[in-house]
């Protein structure tokens, strides 16, 4: 059985450190046997969540597309950058829209509940975005997602990557890849 993993980054920055880390975790999932799709949140039509917008116009196209993507994948691999001690608005806004009822009245939360998830983060600071991970883990937990215990927070991330995008520290590469592999293994068990 093919396990499909959806990889999402909470930063839309061109040279995102979180994207580089996510790519390595995604490769770990691929090496274990997963099929990985990358969804770049900035490419989706996703206004900041607004209840009046939803009542008057329904879900924006980007939200519907993201819901369909989540439905089509068994697991979410998420890079969660840290802004002021928490997760980014870009990422939380996407989760909020995904959780809303779908056009056919079915539950958006049910799309996420029971699905495997894993978190990584990167930051130029010492903690590597750990606080963002803690916050995002609580959000995903509340939605019923099964977040694997393995995760990786890359501190001093601005100095951690070689020019080819790989991590200079091979032990860190092993651990980050292990997050992708662990996600694949749980999703396979759940399938
Ligand atoms: C508004 C803002 C707040 C930030 N707050 C934190 C923070 O609390 N902790 C931290 O480690 N880094 C913080 N940073 C630095 C980000 O971790 C850094 O910009 C990182 O490179 C963002 O991820 P990206 O490279 O994937 O875009 C902050 C950056 C911004 C723009």
Automatic annotation (TrEMBL):
User: Record's superkingdom?
Assistant: Bacteria
Q: Which InterPro entries match?
A: Flavoprotein-like_sf, FMN_Rdtase-like_dom, NAD(P)H-dep_reductase
Q: Which SUPFAM superfamilies match?
A: Flavoproteins (SSF52218)
Signal peptide start and end residues = none
Please list the coiled coil stretches. none
Q: Where is the NADPH-dependent FMN reductase-like domain?
A: 3-158
Q: What is this protein called?
A: FMN reductase
Q: Which organism is it from?
A: Paraburkholderia terrae
């Amino acid at each position: 059985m093919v396990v499909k993993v959806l990889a999402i980054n909470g930063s839309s920055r061109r040279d995102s450190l979180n994207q580089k880390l996510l790519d390595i975790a995604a490769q770990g999932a691929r090496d274990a046997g997963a099929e990985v799709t990358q969804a770049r949140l900035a490419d989706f039509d996703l206004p900041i969540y607004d209840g009046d917008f939803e009542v008057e116009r329904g879900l924006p196209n980007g939200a519907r597309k993201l819901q369909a993507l989540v439905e089509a994948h068994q697991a979410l691999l998420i890079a969660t950058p840290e802004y002021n001690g928490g997760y980014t608005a870009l990422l939380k806004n996407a989760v909020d829209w995904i959780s809303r009822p779908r056009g056919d009245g079915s539950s958006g939360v049910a799309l996420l509940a029971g699905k495997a998830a894993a978190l990584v983060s990167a930051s130029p600071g010492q903690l590597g975005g750990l606080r963002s991970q803690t916050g995002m883990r609580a959000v995903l937990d509340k939605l019923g997602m099964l977040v694997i215990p393995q995760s990786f927070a890359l501190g001093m991330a601005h100095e951690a990557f070689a020019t080819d995008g790989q991590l200079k520290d091979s032990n860190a590469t092993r651990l980050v890849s292990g997050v992708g592999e662990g996600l694949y293994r749980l999703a396979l068990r759940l399938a």
